[in-house]
Design a protein that fits this description.
The chain has 300 residues and is α/β, with parallel strands linked by helices. It is built from 8 helices and 7 strands. α3 crosses α4. The longest helix has 23 residues. The chain is globular, with a radius of gyration of 33 Å. The structure holds S-adenosylmethionine. S-adenosylmethionine binds next to α3, α5 and β2. Its EC number is 2.1.1.-. It is found in: Nucleus, Nucleolus. It holds the Pfam family Methyltransf_8. Its main location: nucleus.
């Protein structure tokens, strides 16, 4: 069943706040050079030299006072803290609500519905991504950076698939060739598609990455597609929000049956887990898998 959000979202999208304007930077103040210090006066205790006959000793004239030191430069004026207007606060709340709504929708529907919705109304995709970007900017660690660090130690000749790549950060950071896929191409590096059906030949990838992108109630299809795309012994890297797993051991067992043997499990981060699997020879048919809970963002 498809849901028409046109009325709700188009009205909301029309009210998106304009990008914040950066305050003009004041030109640096030129500092005046301090006047050179006057030459040291002769010591008061030194005896005056003898005068030639008939000459009167003149009263010593007071030394000219040194020019006053320039006043210290005033400290740079603190940027005035702008209070957000009621309208700006309402717009921010509306944008937050819109992000959470689309986010939850993506986690609870089959991906073909999301693909249809975003194809018809790409502005909804951008609204979702604006929200995701502002959420992830607050995280102390971003899984994409962890995965990029890991790829830094892998062969540069590897070919990698980044499934649900967002704005294709991985392709920008790493030296390997990266194929980036998402529902909407928001960058020229991104190929728009549903990651349940990726336009690449079988066994063409050395690594497949899902960074927080196992969204969609049919996410098992994404994993089966990853299995098709990986060469034998290719690597599957998954970063997921820890709270999405009801029972992570059971989940790992199911992936094992599907053809992915766990090789690394990193739960050191309090928010997300990083799992690494190697593609085995198993091609077990598995149409069902334990569902992952949707990742719901709290209202702030
Ligand atoms: C939470 S964001 C993560 C983005 C990026 N991987 C990161 O870690 O910054 C999830 C991304 O997966 C994408 N996505 C979800 N389901 C998808 C599907 N079926 N096909 C393609 N992309 C999908 C979303 O559009 C979104 O860009």
């Amino acid at each position: 069943m498809s849901v028409d959000f046109t009325g709700y979202f188009l009205a909301a999208a029309a009210r998106r706040p304009p990008p914040p304007q950066s305050a003009p930077t004041p030109a640096p103040k030129k500092r005046r050079r301090q006047a050179a210090a006057p030459a040291a006066a002769p010591a008061a205790s030194a005896a005056p030299p003898p005068l030639p006959a008939g000459k009167k000793r003149q009263k010593p004239r007071p030394l000219a006072a040194p020019p006053p030191a320039p006043p210290p430069a005033p400290p740079p004026a603190a940027a005035p803290r702008r209070k957000r207007s009621v309208q700006q606060r309402l717009e921010a709340q509306l944008a937050g609500g819109r992000f959470r709504f689309i986010n939850e929708w993506l986690y609870t529907r089959p991906s073909r519905e999301a693909a249809r919705l975003f194809a018809a109304q790409p502005e909804l995709y951008h609204a979702y991504h604006d929200g995701f970007r502002s959420q992830s900017a607050r995280w102390p660690v971003n899984p994409v950076d962890r995965i990029a660090g890991w790829l830094g130690g892998r062969p540069s000749v590897w070919v990698v698939g980044d499934m649900g790549c967002g704005d294709a950060q991985l392709a920008r950071i790493v030296r390997q060739e990266v194929h980036s896929f998402d529902l909407v191409a928001c960058d020229e590096r991104v190929v728009a598609c549903d990651i349940a059906h990726v336009p690449l030949p079988s066994a063409s990838l050395d690594a497949v990455v899902f960074s927080l992108s196992l969204m969609g109630s049919n996410y098992v299809e994404f994993l089966l597609e990853a299995r098709r795309l990986l060469r034998p012994k290719g690597v599957l890297k998954v970063a997921e929000v820890a709270s999405r797993f009801e029972d992570i051991d059971e989940w790992i067992q199911q992936l094992d049956a599907m053809g992915f043997r766990l090789t690394e499990r990193d739960e050191s981060n309090s928010h997300f887990v990083l799992l690494e699997f190697v593609r085995t020879s198993s091609n077990a048919v598995l149409n069902q898998i334990v569902p992952l809970k949707p990742c719901i963002y709290k209202r702030r």
